[in-house]
Amino acid sequence: MMNWNLYSRGDKIFAIVVSILIGMFTIATLYPFIYIAAVSFSSGFAAQAGKVVLTPINFTLEAYGYILKDPQFWISYRNTFIYTIGGTLMSLAFIIPGAYALSRPQLKGRRFFNLFVAFTMWFNAGLIPFFLNMRDLGLLDSMFGIILAFAVNAFNIILLRNFFEAIPQSFEEAARMDGANDFQVLWKVFVPLSKPAIATITLFCIVSRWNGFFWAMVLLQSEEKIPLQVFLRHTISNLSDDDEFAIVQTAAGFSAETVTAAIIVCSIIPVLIVYPFIQKYFEKGILLGGVKE
Amino acid sequence: MSDRNSDVGGIPIEEVVVEAQEALRDRSQTRVPDKNWVKVLDHFKREWQIYAMLLPTLIWFVVFLYKPMYGLQIAFKDYSIFRGVAGSPWIGWEHFETLFTNDQFLRAVRNTIYISALNLLFGFPAPIILALMFNEVMHATYKRTAQTIVYLPHFISSVIIAGIVITAFSPSAGIVNTFISWLGFEPIYFLTQPEWFRPIFVGTGIWQEAGFGSIVFLAAIAGVNPSLYESAVVDGANRWQMMWKITIPSILPTILIMLIIRIGNVMEVSFELVILLYQPSTYETADVVNTWVYRQGLQSGQYDLAAAAGLFNAVVAFVLVMTANTLSRRFSRTSLW
Fold it and tell me: Which one, A2, A16, B267, B290, has least CB within 10 Å?
């Protein structure tokens, strides 16, 4: 749109200054991650003394050794995968058919059902009634409970419903001519045509499951069921006031700081691996789900 | 975006025609009493599949979102675990009277509003400024790379964010205090001092969300008519003037809608991050309504009182969101849903 060669001197200076500012913000965004990575590879002594700034001081893998030897780390890592994959599949199993039904003009009470779903975006009962309900349902400390209870949300259903509604009728009619029923129309026409929207919702589900912390902390008691985020939290809050740990660590080459940093690195890595692939979806996705019309 | 001409009040025109025809036919025929039943049965026989698809989702909403709303009645009851929601005796507004004479609760309400106001003041303009700046960056790869990086923190869990903050602000080991001691000052115990909680919390929010939040505004900027810039160039305007005279006015509706959404969410301070960052010594400035509810209800077991506080929060939020939607309808033809 704009040609650099047509820029005046002032415009060029402006563009360069802005680029530098953007660069500074980008570095400020990136720096904490680099810092944490540097801490994780530093010796416990250097980290405790605040010597780490940009690169590891007295490079060591002791903190990782400590983490990777902890069976609880692997258990919670596995659990996070179970919650993420199971939860996302569960979400899609509810959301795709639900959104399809809500998008059908022939659905009686369509207006009511849409309001029934949307109302939960504006009003929710809050933490306590939700918790008591989970208890009454016998879903405390249940992995299945976590997967089921957070499967659906109004926003994702409405996002997909809007997308379904925008699909031209002619696509459906062709399938109907061939005698397709609703399940077939959904599966063979709507789902393939809605790949971007479904990818977006899948992405939202994966991210919220991978990062899910609060309810996992509240609802799960057994250590063998907790996800990585809860394990990370336990570690951060326990390590620093654990005297026994303090004695062990002086002998070894790690500290509460380096161990915390190492867990952070371990739990970010999968996000970093997937991130480049999902990027093209979320930019479109946020706009799909954003302002309607 | 559907073709407006083919819709009547949002209902596809075909549907309206069919309905009208049916209405005429109904009127012209003598009514057989059980004809409606036949019609309804017929409809379900033909369309049972869409109801079958809707049913699981409906049940889910009832079980996980509407049943807790029924459970909200404990806000007006003396709830006991043994008697259950329905069996506990009614006590009217007693819990609300307790709440509004409870200093800690009132403090939590004030903190919620205060933190939201700071978020609005500093957190809201940040992504707009960032988007405007991205729009001025000419080097495509540089811009792309920067965008990729600044979106990233949005995808990082609040536990990790809190872990990073705790590590970075630690008095002995943290990088922030390392810098402070380089400058020759005494280390600051950031996370135990109430006056530091809000700046750290709001700053963390900006660091985490400003990049991702800029996507919406970048999309709005991309939608600005290029001919506006072309004629501005002919008129000899520079980039700074174009930003103020063209870009910002063009994206004003988006800014307004996002602002209204933010105001609607004033009661929604991300309490997960608060729980992860606060401690008893910073409750004074950090404790928000939902963290108070969490401690009173889930940690101390005062379910009824905590539910009342949650209900208060939800009602205020509901009124705000509804007002926000009405406002956005008025300002633009766009409603939020």
Answer: A16
